[in-house]
Design a protein that fits this description.
2 copies of one chain form a homodimer. By secondary structure, chain A is mainly alpha-helical. The first copy, chain A, is built from 15 helices and 2 strands.
Chain lengths: 307, 307
């Protein structure tokens, strides 16, 4: 996960957090010595396939931004951060299935169903989704987080992942393939398919770290703007990204007739739109102190990323 | 859901509870007027396809058996009871998929993927599983249940539904088709694929109703025995059940080379085994007072059921 514009602060920050998240995921998830081995193999195959850990990192950075997350309280936020990645990974496995987007490659590796078969891929996704809630509710990892706050986090994550969030977005995305594009539908897909989980990632960290109502509102807005940036950047990368860096075929959105920002308004206008959104995200958290620096740098990074 | 041996107490009990659960599910789950309609249609199609609501009823009956569940505390247990049915329904939709058991009919109706397509069937399952945890964590339905108890219930349900429970059982079931049967594998499949969720149904109700440690242990044992009865009865029905009553093809286990109790030890020995297990389940809760009558009657009913 290299940062191209020579920002050594962010490079070091992302590296440290990604390391902590990867270690924790490896610790939390049972190994392949368990029975039946194939399900643990399949879950781990997709989970450790080179994800950037954007959602868990946003969760941790948001906790830090409101003054939690460093030192004592970090351990109890880490399971929630990891749960967000479990849900993200499940959604990729299911989205790649032949009945859905029918993708053979993801992050440069064959997709789960190509390696393990469709049946195991479906079940690996199911197991990852289930494990997310199991992990958040593990008493041995809970630390001093309030039970009612964990319940709120479970509620919010499930809402963002479900029919009014990510699943709803995927349904509309599937339905809209090859149809006449309209901006309203495009906005629905983006805000639900990726936006909702990005917002909930930012909110969950802040909530567990004891954010005030005002802070939580500001961070939700930040998440909303950053989530959209993330999706527009993804769409642009799908057109002009480097296949080697992305690890998947570019141009797949266009050949599938998917509606995207660049398809509707062109690449340059999309890039301008993304930069505007970054500015809005920075305004959202303008009153936050220097502990919000990671959130600020991440917002700027998302629009410039090459993979 | 008729009870054949003229037990009017149980008939009335099951009818009342099923009614309460059906009403609650209908209230909790958004309707088809929501966007995108097809996901709510698909979830509701499978959820209201004539399920017997065994798991939620066991949850409510278990709460009553330890002195809770009636009157004031019932409302706050109902969401958890319904969550168990959401998870059960998701598992049926995914199990029926072409990549899994490839079943065209379930409860006399075409399966989800036959009606909505594979993509929507997968997503409807995903949405139901996600909704289960959303529902348990809904603050407006929580009543006076302790947040830490709800977290324990979420933990236990996710464990029973995941890789060490239902998903693990389904993986081994898929792997064992057409292979030489052995009793150890058969026992693994039954105890994980159906057993774990039955045990957790019984435990969840008891836990929320304030069961003691001893009561919880006794009810877990009851759940373990009753879960096995349920599965053996299912296997026998698959051989000699009435297709019209079952709403699905009989003989499908045999034609698929599935290992089952009747396939391994014959129908009569399996029926004897099931009756022994019912006796054990009754012993497990022998010290409970008359409020455990529904649990006792349900155990006896499971072995005699015709559908």
């Amino acid at each position: 996960m290299s940062v191209e514009h020579g920002n050594s602060f962010l490079t070091a920050y992302l590296k440290e957090k990604k390391g902590a998240i990867d270690d924790a995921l490896d610790r939390y998830l049972p190994g392949e010595e368990n029975y039946p081995p194939v399900i643990f193999k399949a879950m781990r195959y997709s989970l450790f396939a080179g994800g950037k850990r954007i959602r868990p990192i946003l969760c941790l950075a948001s906790a830090e931004a409101v003054g939690g997350g460093s030192g004592k309280s970090l351990p109890s936020i880490l399971p929630v951060a990891c749960a967000l990645e479990l849900i993200h990974t499940y959604s990729l496995i299911h989205d790649d299935l032949p009945a859905m987007d029918n993708d053979d490659y993801r992050r440069g590796k064959p997709t789960s169903h190509k390696v393990f078969g469709e049946d195991i891929a479906i079940l690996a996704g199911d197991a990852l989704l289930t494990e997310a809630f199991h992990l958040i509710a593990r008493r041995d990892l809970m630390g001093d987080v309030l039970p009612e706050n964990l319940l709120t986090v479970i509620h919010d994550i499930a809402e963002a992942a479900g029919y009014f969030g990510m699943v709803g977005g995927q349904v509309v995305d599937l339905q809209s393939e090859g149809r006449e594009a309209d901006l309203e539908t495009l906005h629905y897909i983006h805000s639900h398919k990726t936006g909702a989980m990005i917002i909930t990632s930012v909110r969950a960290g802040a909530l567990l770290a004891g954010a005030s109502k005002d802070e939580l509102y500001a961070l939700s807005e930040y998440g909303r703007h950053v989530g959209l940036v993330f999706q527009i950047a993804d769409d642009i990368l799908n057109i002009e990204g480097d296949r080697a860096l992305l690890g998947k075929n570019t141009g797949s959105d266009a050949s599938r007739g998917k509606i995207t920002f660049p398809a509707m308004m062109g690449v340059e206008a999309s890039r301008r739109k993304a930069r505007e959104l970054v500015e809005q995200a920075l305004v959202d958290i303008a009153t936050f102190d220097p502990k919000a620096r990671p959130l600020r740098e991440i917002a700027r990074y998302l629009v410039e990323r090459k993979s």
